[in-house]
Amino acid sequence: PEFSLADSTGTTRSLADAKGKFVVLEWFNKDCPFVRKQYDSGNMQRLQEAYTAKGVVWLTVVSSAPGKQGYVTPEEANAVIRERQAHQTALVLDPDGTVGRRYGAKTTPHMFIINPAGTLIYAGAIDSIPSADPADIAGAENYVRHALDEALAGRPVSVSSTASYGCSVKYD
Question: What is the pTM of this model?
Fold first, then answer.
């Protein structure tokens, strides 16, 4: 679904702005241990850096409602980006949860990949081991990496859907 959200710098970001490019949507909650697994290990930042360098638009989405775990103001979001040394294109704020609900985002992280034609080509978990232990990353199949590598090479995505895992998105 199309959306238009303000990012942590106040810039409006929309799916239409990324037309003709691959887009990753990463649902994020700074306090979720499953998200911390990916960021504390540097795994998420390496993915962000590798694929944004290939022209992929990577939008990290915070759908936590005010007063709920993971909610951030724009200033707090910018601090989190700096602290975690994140490399996404932008961190967008969805405090009323409209975009998260439209996409069916259930967990953090919940990952979605959209192709240049605007078609959803992957939805689900970041990897194959549903744990909060960073030691599990090395042995996990990274579904996002595989889907992006296949799609960028012009091949069909072999695994287009998996069950997401992590903390529930903290909607109002």
Answer: 0.97
